[in-house]
Specification:
Helices cover 0% and strands 53% of the residues. The chain is an all-beta fold and 336 residues long. The strands form eight sheets. Strands 2-1-29-28-27-26 form a six-stranded antiparallel β-sheet, with no helix packed on it. A five-stranded mixed β-sheet has the order 3-33-32-31-30, with no helix packed on it. A hairpin with a 2-residue loop joins β1 and β2. It is globular, with a radius of gyration of 19 Å.
């Protein structure tokens, strides 16, 4: 089975055996994939970066968030959420540690394995971000609300509700007091982070907008659409300055769950979809550059793009670290 495909051709890759619990990772002479025991039972829903090399923070359906070292295969800490799925996660080292959103409707700020609980939503928390001045946590939920919390006191400062705005994802625009937010009502909104005043609503799409990211220059927003059998399933580009839709990138057969600008790039986007497909897109040419299918991993749920060119993917069946070499070949290097 060909697992790697260039839009201009194809190359092949292979899978290897999974190591047992407590064992050293096994490798295959063709792929040299390090395979550790699964960190989560069930789907890994979300990822965020860690300040420490080779570590990542993960959130899963099993009610745990973990700090995991994918070089050694060690779980450095568990953050337990009373068995309720972790649905959102954000690196918050500047204010203590990690912020999580949970299906139990709560936001938590973690210092190690101890959490301050912020209670105020009525439905699952789907997105969390830290404001640039580190004074507030902004959380979004399926209850149509964005809440602003004081990071020091845990007090709910204000809450904004927008009819039918079931929030799916949020992202800050770099060097601006602007929040990008996607919704199940098929819209993309911009908010002022200082007072949560609505700045702009982009034209309504045909399908639910599931995810979003912003390039490092703050000029372009990318979102992903739900869909099926090639209908919807697009990656969309939005201009921050002109407030216009720039265009759609098509080619996925199933809904897009996650999108990220490749680290250090304003022009290359990576997407992950429900059919285990990772795609790299050139947004200037509006074309797919490379793609990689992850057989047996299920739906791709989240992505982290690292400066060294590697990309970490969370899925229904664990996490996969991918590397992109100078010959444009994508290789699986670590699974856990």
């Amino acid at each position: 089975m060909k697992l790697f495909t260039s839009c201009m051709g194809s190359k092949s890759s292979h899978h290897t055996r999974r190591g047992g619990k407590g064992e050293a990772p096994t490798t295959d002479r063709r792929d040299r994939v390090h395979r550790y025991s699964r960190v989560h039972k069930g789907t890994v829903n979300c990822l965020t970066t860690s300040p420490h090399k080779y570590t990542v923070v993960t959130g899963g359906d099993d009610g745990h968030a973990t700090v995991f070292n994918y070089s050694t295969g060690n779980v450095l800490s568990y953050m337990r959420h009373d068995g309720k799925p972790v649905s959102a996660i954000e690196n918050a080292q500047t204010i203590g540690g990690v912020v999580t959103g949970c299906r139990d409707t709560n936001v938590r700020l973690w210092n190690g394995t101890t959490a301050t609980v912020f209670a105020g939503h009525s439905l699952v928390v789907t997105a969390v971000v830290i404001t640039p001045d580190n004074t507030r946590i902004l959380s979004g939920s399926r209850d149509n609300c964005i809440n602003a919390w004081d990071t020091k006191t845990g007090k709910l400062l204000y809450s904004i509700a927008e009819s039918r705005n079931l929030i799916t994802a949020m992202k800050l625009i770099p060097n601006e007091n602007v929040l990008v937010q996607t919704s199940e009502d098929k819209r993309v909104r911009l908010w002022d982070t200082r007072n949560l005043e609505l700045i702009h609503v982009y034209p309504t799409k045909n399908y639910i907008q599931t995810c979003c990211d912003v390039n490092s220059s703050g000029s372009c927003i990318v979102t992903g659409s739900n869909g099926f059998n090639g209908s919807g399933c697009e990656v969309s580009l939005w201009d921050v300055r002109t407030k216009q839709l720039l265009g759609d990138l098509r080619g996925n057969e199933q809904g897009v769950n996650c999108v990220k600008f490749l680290s250090g790039s304003n022009d290359v986007v990576i997407s992950g979809s429900k059919d285990s497909l990772i795609k790299l897109w050139d947004i200037n040419k509006r074309d797919c550059i490379l793609e990689k299918r992850l057989p047996g991993m299920g739906s791709v749920t989240d992505l982290i793009s690292y400066p060294d060119g590697s990309v970490l993917c969370s899925t229904s069946n664990g996490c996969v670290l991918l590397t992109l070499d100078d010959k444009n070949i994508i290789t699986e290097t670590v699974c856990f």
